[in-house]
Amino acid sequence: MPVLINCETSAASPPVCVEYVRKTAERLLRLCGRPAAELSITLVTDARIAALNEAYRRKPGPTNVLAFALAEGPATAMAVDLLGDVVISVETAGREAGLARISLHQRLAWLLTHGLLHLLGYDHERSAAEAARMAARENELLQQLQRERRREMIRLAVNVDHVATLRQARGGAEPDPVLAAGICELAGAEGIVVHLREDRRHIQDRDVRLLRQTVKTKLNLEMAAAEEIIAIAVEVKPDMVTLVPEKRQELTTEGGLNVAGQKKRLKEVIARLGAAGIPVSLFIDPASRQIKAAREVGATFVEIHTGRYCDVRGENERQQEFELIAAAAEEAFETGLRVNAGHGLNYVNTSRIAALETIEELSIGHAIMARAVFVGLDQAVREMLGQMM
Description:
Collagenase (Catalytic Domain), alpha/beta, TIM Barrel, 49% helix, 8-stranded parallel β-barrel
């Protein structure tokens, strides 16, 4: 599916995740029944699109999107799978997104849809009836795009630490977090999370090694940037590592990692894990300073801390916390980081976070294990997946 993207923006242009643009274009082509068609997309500055607007449309100044079909009129045999070019000004798109109070990438999706429909023969300037037909098709495609993207992206990773906590309370062999992980996977979880703490209060070294051998989806090892734990991670090679802060007296992780305050150390740790083939996520509060630092130290993912959103009581306060998470997820995504989220999510508050398109995966443990006491682990996982639809 040849989607060709040229990025001719400047340092002053808003940052764009090119992979998002590519995947959006590929989805649109499928939805339009042209999955094998070739489409060229060029992301440009206002100055560049203004020059094209003047040269080809005899109109001064920048516009948001231009479409150049390969062939005018009915498609020829040669051009049937060669649609043409869509040119988008990222700077204009950014301003329009701000005015509409939507993300840059949401605006880019609309402009890409608009340009593609022009290539497919729609023209809103032809008549009022044609403008209405094109607008209706745009809305239809954007709704389909949102549903398809959500189905593709959102995943549930289940933290099984609390199973080990219950086991350690008696010092025996049951319940077994390794068995619990298998049940979670069979119920539809697409990842297993465990936190190997320095004090070994729940998950043990043996658990991690057995999980590495048995997990069929993805094993995410949460850990502090401690030498002993780093050595175990390099040996075991989980599918990913999430670096978290760790305090001896805390009941659970209390807040995000201060990446900005320890960039040199974290950059070294991420490089060591990367050399072992292990991508790294950083568990951070929803703050621009931490997102920027995460990018600078070489993280692949960030996991946005949702604890404050989950803990606040008032609806206004919860809305404010939700908006912080949404903005942070979008900012991280736009800088090229992949985005997960977790901490404190339950069967009441998860659906809003799951609806954020920039988040790939939710990490949930306590709520699922608490629910499992009453309905069983398999059912608890399935119910949580239902909240994420």
